[in-house]
Amino acid sequence: MSSDTLKKRKSKVVRSETATPEIKRVRGEGEQHDVRVYNEEVELDGRDPEQDYLQYKESCESLATLMSEIQELKANGAKEGCVEVEQKRIQSCIHFMNLKKLNRLAHMRLKRGRDQTHESKQRVDVLHLQLQNLLYEVMHLQKEISKCLEFKSNHEEIDLVSEEEFYQEAPEEISRPNLTKSDPHQLTLARLDWELEQRKRLAEQYKESQTTKEKIQKSIEVKKEHLRSLQPGLNAIMQASLPVQEYLSMPYEQTQKQTEIARHLPPPLYVLFVQANAYCQACDKNLVVSIIGDVDEARALSKPPDDSQDDESDSDAEEEQEKTKRRRPTTGGQLDDKRREMLKRHPLSLCLDLKCKDGSILHLYFYYLMSLNIMTVKTRVSTSTDLSSAISAGELLKSETLLSCLYTSDQGRETPNPANRYQFDRVGIVSFADYVEELGYPYMWVQNLGGLQFPSDSSEGVLVGSSLSASHMESTMKLLRGRVLSRLALHKQFASLEHSIIPVSSECQQLFPAKIISRLARWITISQQEYMDLPYTCHVTDAGLAKESDLYFLGVVERGTAHLQAAVVLSPRYPEISPLFSLSLSWKGECSGRTDDNLRAMESEVNVFKNELQGPRPGHQLLTNQLARLCFCLDVYLETEGQDDSVEGPREFPREKMCLRTVRGPNRLKPFKYNHPQGFFSHR
User: Fold this and answer.
1) Phi first, then psi: what are they for 394, rounded to 5°?
2) Which of 48, 86, 95, 393 is most buried, by the most CB atoms less than 10 A from its CB?
3) Chain CA centroid to CA 78, Å
4) Residue 451 in this model has a pLDDT that exceeds 80
5) Of the spans 44-48, 221-225, 315-319, which averages the highest pLDDT?
């Protein structure tokens, strides 16, 4: 038997053992035949994978055994084509075919598993999509439910009448109590019907009122036209009466204009305007009150904004917003704008012209700061004479010093309103004193004249408004007039002092000897720091008598080789508070009131015994009288000083003053008191 025949038989045996053929019936011509068709997919359903795996392992082991046996036969010298070798080869081929079949079955199982997995995934995707659709529907239904729950009808915003009032006032055809009391929905509908009925009635009343209003307006226009026709005649009468008004000092037309403008003043300025006019008419004809400023701007401030202005403001706001989008303002720029807005003054201000006996006029300009709710004042003095001759008197009539301390400790540098401190902190203002030159000085008496009163430790909280202004008006006007007169008197005196002339009035001639040899050589103004730097003024500074609000001067009195320096502290309330002198003598060395008892006695003559030098009231000659006394005290000091007998020749300071005793006591004090009319000097 050949090898090919053996292979065919073996393959048939294997197929018959492993394969299960599929039987199909085929009908031929007149007979029926059974045809068996081999199908591995059908066979795959009936096979066990575990058995296929065991068969695979057995085939692999058998194949390895046959290969090793063939190798041994060839190694032992078996020839090619030997029957034993061929049989083993045939068996090996059978095992190879079995492995191929098992491989195909494994691939088919893998494909079937993948197909099943894919089908399962598709089913899962379909179910997931269905779940998503259901969740979306649930979410949509929840949103609709929320909308329904949050829905508010327009009738809920209508303020309906109460149920009791509805049943009392509404007719039964609308209220229907039998139905509405048991059904809230019908009750709401009935109340809405009643509201509609009431609004229809009100609309009819509104139309009737509008018709009546138009009729009244037409009648008013007719009357206005009649009044306008009378205006030219009234103006002609007023023009013709102007000479009569001037002759009788009754400026009716000017007063009427001022009264019309005064309606637009802020409350504090209006209080001051009314009280100043009342004081002028009752007590002081030399006081003139006038209103200055932009009336149109003040009228615009007091006018309430209308709709057109709102539209304009909206458009302006949009333009500003566009500008800010283009250019963002810096923080510093915003603070500057806020400061300017906070320190803004009212467009109208009040001017009080206070005329004095010598023809000079004190102009007081009162302003109102709207955001800070305080009043400020600026001053100006006008005279018929030239006031530019005295250099040292430059500080006397300045606005910042003229009214300083009109009342005790009222320097007008800080705002009296405690609330302003918190406003300043928000916009970065450290001190209001930095702005007083521009805005004016917020003296406390200015607030009192305007009826403004702020809480303080000393305030009683009784007088407010017009009562407060009236209680301070007369005393303040007297103080203002006295301050101007005293400063003008000082101005004239300083003009003479700068030319080394001490003016002494005829009423004060008896206070001084006929001949005074010492003279005033220099009179200048100095600063507070320069005053404090002088070595002989430390006792005044330590005692707190040299204040920032005071004025400081330096005078030099000379006689021969002796030079007496006098540092003077002049209070703003002069002559109520007398000047304070500190002395230093340069002669045979340096000495001052702290080192020389006689210089201390000279300081006492001008500082302590100042009542003797007041002169006629109100005492404007006090300063010059003190300087004149200082000059003759220096004469007495030098003439009574002992001369060295070893020095020959005439005395430097011959004795010309008559003294009862040249010195007295252990301190060797000199006689500085002048006795009139005897004309001699004695000790105190």
Assistant:
1) -65, -30
2) 393
3) 119
4) yes
5) 221-225
Query: What are 84's two structure tokens?
Result: 């034993």
Question: Residue for token digits 């000097």?
Answer: 681
Name the E strands within 489-549: 519-526
Angle, to 10 degrees, between the axis of helix 267-282 and the axis of helix 252-262? Answer: 150
Backbone angles phi, psi at 313, to 5 degrees: -65, -35
Reference 513, options 635, 623, 616; nearest CA is: 635
Task: Find where tokens 């011959």 sit.
Answer: 654
Copy the structure tokens of residue 160.
């309906």
Whether omega for the bond prior to residue 416 falls within 30 degrees of 0, making it cis, is no
Q: What integer is the mean pLDDT of 296-309?
A: 68
Runs of H (alpha helix) within 403-464:
419-427, 436-439, 444-449
d(CA 279, CA 315): 49
**What's the pLDDT score for residue 25?**
47
- Other beta carbons within 10 angstroms of residue 457's beta carbon come to 4
Contact 364, 450 (CB under 8 A): no
Residues 663, 672: Cα–Cα separation, whole Å: 10
Q: How far apart are CA 574 and CA 552, in angstroms?
A: 13
Beta strands in 311-412 (DSSP E): 348-355, 361-369, 374-382
pTM over 0.70: no
Name the DSSP class of 660: S
Query: Rounded distance, CA 90 to CA 7, Å?
Result: 7
Q: Quick one: tokens of 460? A: 């009683």
